[in-house]
């Protein structure tokens, strides 16, 4: 059966859905490899804006790396989790298209797992406005590595209802130049409960009718219990490819 890709209207509904599962998001989503932070943000940067910061998964890694971080996030539910998880960081309501910060106030901007929700034609000039000349924009996605058989099976179960199209190697253009990309392979160890939270925090799962969401989560639990590669494993090791894009503001 062909699974339909999502329309623009559905995309907006998905983009706005995260707050409803902010706690599952915080518990279940993976961190990012430290090498990604180092590649995406120059060590000479001081002021860094984390756009679409969510519950602060990337924000906390920026703070740990020693940057002065401002987080911008449209969902109040996600901001609440962020404020609790990364105390002391400045958190603002806003989007990549409307950033509540002055012109030329940041050395770097990043978007982790969020660029696919923005309108690039509005976000690109807005991010350029906030960056100082020579400032950088870094985009990053953690993608599950489907070359491992059980992960491919998990992917089939997760996408029984919808398949989300994501361009993880976007062009930027306009005020941005020197576009570069890299990929980092790594493995994330998590419990079964955390894996179920990872699934429950996907936008296309959040927006499902409750009965279909319960069925999907039940199918994931069944896979975890029955797959020969996973049986008797208390902890799971999920392989990821982290895709990174960076560019410099003219
Ligand atoms: C998959 S989450 C990523 C959160 C966080 N960056 C992380 O890595 O865990 C996507 C986030 O983008 C936010 N978002 C949706 N549309 C956005 C927009 N136009 N500008 C900025 N953020 C947006 C959502 O509210 C959500 O918190």
UniProtKB/TrEMBL annotation:
One BP annotation, GO: methylation
Keyword Methyltransferase: yes
Extent of Polar residues compositional bias: 1-15
Start and end residues of each stretch annotated as Disordered: 1-20
UniProt keywords, alphabetically: Methyltransferase, Transferase
CDD domains associated with the record: AdoMet_MTases
SUPFAM superfamilies in the cross-refs: S-adenosyl-L-methionine-dependent methyltransferases
Source organism, top-level taxon: Bacteria
Pfam families membership: Methyltransf_11
Gene Ontology MF terms: methyltransferase activity
Record domain Methyltransferase type: where: 49-137
InterPro entries hit by this protein: Diverse_substrate_MTase, Methyltransf_11, SAM-dependent_MTases_sf
Family: Belongs to the methyltransferase superfamily.
PANTHER family cross-referenced by the UniProt entry: METHYLTRANSF_11 DOMAIN-CONTAINING PROTEIN, METHYLTRANSFERASE TYPE 11 DOMAIN-CONTAINING PROTEIN
Entry protein name: SAM-dependent methyltransferase
Provenance organism: Actinoplanes palleronii
């Amino acid at each position: 059966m062909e699974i339909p890709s999502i329309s623009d209207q559905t995309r907006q509904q998905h983009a706005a859905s995260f707050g409803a599962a902010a706690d599952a998001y915080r518990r279940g989503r993976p961190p990012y490899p430290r090498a990604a932070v180092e590649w995406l943000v120059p060590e000479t940067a001081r002021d860094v804006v984390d756009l679409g910061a969510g519950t602060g998964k990337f924000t906390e890694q920026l703070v740990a790396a020693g940057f002065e971080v401002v987080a911008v996030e449209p969902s109040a539910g996600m901001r609440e989790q962020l404020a609790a998880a990364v105390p002391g960081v400045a958190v603002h309501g806003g989007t990549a298209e409307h950033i509540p910060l002055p012109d030329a106030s940041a050395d770097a901007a990043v978007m982790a797992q969020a660029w696919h929700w923005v309108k690039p034609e509005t976000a690109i000039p807005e991010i350029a406005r906030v960056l100082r000349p020579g400032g950088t924009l870094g985009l990053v996605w953690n993608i599950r590595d489907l070359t491992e058989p059980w992960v491919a099976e998990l992917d089939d179960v997760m996408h029984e209802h919808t398949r989300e199209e994501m361009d993880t190697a976007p062009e930027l253009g306009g005020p941005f130049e020197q576009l570069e990309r890299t990929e980092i392979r790594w493995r994330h160890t998590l419990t079964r409960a955390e894996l179920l939270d990872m699934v429950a925090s996907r936008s296309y799962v959040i927006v499902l009718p409750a009965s279909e969401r319960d069925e999907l989560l039940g199918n994931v639990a069944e896979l975890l219990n029955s797959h020969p590669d996973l049986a008797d494993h208390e902890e799971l090791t999920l392989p990821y490819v982290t895709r990174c894009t960076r560019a410099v503001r003219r």
